[in-house]
Amino acid sequence: MRTFHNLLVRVVLGVLLAAGGARAQQNPKANSGSDKPQPAEPAPAEKSSSSSSPSDTVVKTKTEFSAYTDTDSVTVFTPAVQASIENPLSGWSANGSYLVDVVSAASVDIVSTASQHWTEVRHAGTLSGTYKPGTVGGTVSGAVSSEPDYLSLSAGGTVNLELANKTANPSLSYAFTHDTAGRTGTPFSVFSQPLARHTITGSLELILDPSTLVSFSADAILESGDQTKPYRFLPLFAPDVAPLIPRGASINEVNARRLPGRIDEHLPGTRNRFAFSGRVAQRLNGSTLILSERLYADDWGLKATTTDLRFVIDVSRRVFLWTHLRGHFQSSISFWKLAYAGNVSTNGPISVPKWRTGDREESALEAGTFGAGMRFDVGTEVQPTGWSIVAQADVLTTLFNDTLFIQNREGFLGVLQLETEF
Q1: What pLDDT, in 10s, does the model give residues 313-323?
Q2: CA dist., res. 137 & res. 84, Å (int)
Q3: Is 281 buried (19+), middle (13-18) or exposed (0-12) by CB count in 10 A?
Q4: Which of 11, 259, 296, 422 is 20 to 30 A away from residue 275, measured at CA?
């Protein structure tokens, strides 16, 4: 039973930490309320290492290569490295990661503006340290993400507690992020759009018995600044034409019916996001079931629900297989329009909607992910997790209910990892 207890703790904590790391490594320009391709998580059934004394210092490294492509002519190649060092007896640990995103795109949004495809490189790094000598501990962390037209800097901290003989573990964290958006080839001193983000997270982890772990978390993300995209321009239609534009209308149809010229995107200067998540992990006979649910809402009117199911099978002491299902459903923001109506006549004042966007990730959509993965511990008999290979493949599909140009998008994400522990 003690073995199952240790295994379950590693199972869920590993998934929780991996999910948090994946979110931190996402492009900061991504919408937190929509379905986005994610880097792979370590196999949820990773076993605890009992070959080393708790007083030993443990070093772990991970190298990863992932590739993403979809039917909207977007490809992303991401090599990444991660390292950690910890001393369980002393209660300290440090973690660091670095990745490079190579993005190539010729999406319909780019083509519709008569632009060519483009390639962009993003560098992102994270660093964190934890000290927890007893039942109270703390973590400090920092991250940086840089692109030719975007710079994101963040720092934060977490306080962790262990209560009721370590069966009830609350935590509270805060992070501040400062993003600066610009235009490629133009210095930030000439043109820049700052955005500040405050993230407050409270969580509670409950170990109900040696085979069951439940956790809850609540997030408040408060944003202020200019969130418009400098490159995004929207077609404008006459008031009597806009209602007649069908969803999924082609570029040629839009160009034939829109008014001359284009308008830029314009968004409110603040956005407050809120989310509540729950996760349960149940250790079964030779398998583990992990189910999570996330509810999201913000003051732009977007509401979303995301359900994630992962089932892990212990094929042997060294081999673990899992399947992964994810469903995401969301409403649109309150000022979303398939086709914005206005008046740009030279005989009168220009009249356009105050708030407007062409980001289809802000529209009503339904998204699903189906995937499978494998972990193979190839270390020594004494320490099987000394060397591990992890492979994962996911198929992603998104249905857009009220957008121009495309009505669905299919994507594929493949990940290969090599982990070491010594």
Answers
A1: 999 999 999 99
A2: 18
A3: buried
A4: 11
